[in-house]
Structure formats: structure tokens, C-alpha cells
Amino acid sequence: xxxxxxxxxxxxxxxxxxxxxxxxxxxxxxxxxxxxxxxxxxxxxxxxxxxxxxxxxxxxxxxxxxxxxxxxxxxxxxxxxxxxxxxxxxxxxxxxxxxxxxxxxxxxxxxxxxxxxxxxxxxxxxxxxxxxxxxxxxxxxxxxxxxxxxxxxxxxxxxxxxxxxxxxxxxxxxxxxxxxxxxxxxxxxxxxxxxxxxxxxxxxxxx
Length: 207
Description:
This protein is of the alpha/beta class. The protein has helices spanning 14-27, 46-54, 67-77, 118-131, 152-164, 173-182; strands at 5-7, 10-12, 36-40, 59-61, 106-110, 137-142, 144-145, 171-172, 185-193, 197-204. The mean pLDDT is 94.
């Protein structure tokens, strides 16, 4: 989706360079003290590194289906003395994926569900519901369709994604909210982020 620079196994994402600061600043206000956070589809690993720079109490568990991304995450982790764990190979579209990962207190997923089949969003909600207790957060970041309020850039991005893969596309905000509601979550907060992205914080209501 983008050209990435590298230094050894460590990858550098242009989009992460633009958004990791605002994302980390917002996440730092959300996660409880001493939380272990599972990141789904962590890409280069820069988001976890940026957050752990701010929140010294956080333990970060990155993951990605892609081996190069996992290698990059492991390189970034070397700067954090064990607070960022070795990356895991996780495909949330697989049944019971959540039973094969360590315990975690919150889940974070950035820029994933629009470049994946809808089954990935479904698996994400299902797994989060199975493993998160009442009051815990599942956090999504990325572009969304929001009816007449949808930014023109997100409409164009949606069409571009669908032209590449008909199972991809910028997801409808109401559909995502309904999916997590059916899994036992409520939308705790919605924050406008740079470049017409949103951060959605879903709170587990029933366990």
C-alpha cells in the first residue's frame, strides 16, 4: 500500500511517521495503568513504540500476519527492555484465534479492517468479546464512512480499495458499531483524528 524505508529489519512507514504522534498521545489517555495491550495488525511496529515512549507502565504485545512486519516490530521492541514483547503471528479471521495468545487487558487495531475482508472485522469483535472483561477497551483507528458527513478523501479511498480487491473498502461506521454492539460492546468515545481518520473506543459491557 505504501513504500517503506528500512534499516536492517526495521521498517519505517510514511503514514506512521505522520500519525503516530497524535495516535500515541490519544492512546496514552485511554489505557489503564499497567495494562497489557494486544495490537492486531501492527505493521512496522512504530505505533507501539510511540505509545511505549509516553506510557512507561504499558506492556505491548504486537502481532501481524506478515513476517516482515513481525521482524520490524521485533527490531523496534529492542529499544524497550522487554516492555514490547516478541511479535505474534495472528490472523483474526481464524476461529478461536484469541485462545492462542497470552492474556491481555485491552486491544488496539489500526488501519486494518478496510484493507481486509469483512470477516476480519467480525473475527476481531468476536475475539475481543471472548477475552476482554467488563469495562475493558477495544480500540479501532482508521477511516470510516459516516453517511453525509463522510470526507471526500475517504469516499475516493473507498473506491480505490474496492478497485484493488472487492472485499476491501472503507467500512461504514454504523455497521462497525453494530458489529461490536452485537458482541457486547458500546461505543465509549469517538475522536476525530488527522487526515479524516477516527479513533473509536469500544467498552465491553457484558462478559
